[in-house]
Write a structure and sequence with these properties.
single chain; 229 residues; three-stranded antiparallel beta sheet; flat
């Protein structure tokens, strides 16, 4: 039997010493001169119309640099052209608990969190949908007004001769399958330090120099903000 040097052997974590001694640096431990902190106000409702947003009290708070809401980034985006129904921040309604409503940028985390408390949002709670089959029966209060029956996409793929195939089949069974999608790892916290021709991204104490414009999805971000690409 082949003796492996790594497989089947106990291996120490490369950051074990830092974690066990408390000397390891996490993103929250890092700071650079002039660093700002961003916080997002999330929806408490699964489905509701936004009747009004008043940010004046938050904007007046000492240490707040900017407050941004949906109208500041009104253009939709999405992974596929058929699914451009997302917004960076909610415009007319929220569609799930945690939907992004407003963003605050401040000189510290404490100030940013206080500013979120000072944003006044008036909601009109709408019926929520928790079952896909029941959701498709809806005729009013749709999740997206331009998606009848709350149907996001409707694809039809036909290969060969289905009628002949069913006629020759010894049995027939129908099944509903969940759609899957792959996604990259998303970090909850990260820091970015900008410099000429590069950006230094710090994630959990490790740093990566990126020698291209950040964010990398520049066309998508420009579309959302209504800016030239």
């Amino acid at each position: 039997m082949t003796e492996f040097s790594i497989i089947g052997k106990p291996t120490a974590m490369v950051d074990a010493a830092e974690k066990t001694t408390g000397s390891g640096k996490y993103t929250d431990d890092l700071s650079v001169p002039g660093m700002l902190v961003g916080k997002i106000l999330h929806s408490p409702y699964p489905h509701a119309r936004i009747k009004s947003i008043d940010t004046k009290r938050a904007e007046a708070l000492d240490g707040v640099v900017a407050v941004v809401i949906g109208k500041d980034a009104p253009n939709p985006y999405g992974i596929l052209p058929i699914g451009h129904d997302e917004h960076a921040l909610a415009l007319d309604k929220v569609r799930y608990v945690g939907d992004n409503v407003a963003c605050v940028v401040a000189v510290s985390e404490a100030v940013a969190e206080k500013a979120l408390e000072l944003i006044d949002v008036e909601y009109e709670v709408l019926p929520a949908y928790f079952d896909p089959e029941e959701s498709m029966k809806a005729r009013t209060d749709l999740i997206h007004d331009n998606k009848p029956g709350n149907l996001e996409k409707d694809y039809h793929h036909v290969f060969g001769d289905p009628d002949k195939g069913f006629a020759d089949a010894i049995g027939r069974h129908e099944a509903a399958l969940h759609r899957s999608a792959a996604a990259g790892k998303e970090h909850h916290v990260f820091g970015i330090e900008f410099a000429p021709q590069r950006a230094l991204i710090r994630i959990q104490g490790r740093q990566v120099a990126v020698r291209r414009r950040v964010p990398q999805d520049r066309p998508g971000r420009a579309q959302v903000r209504g800016r030239p690409r």
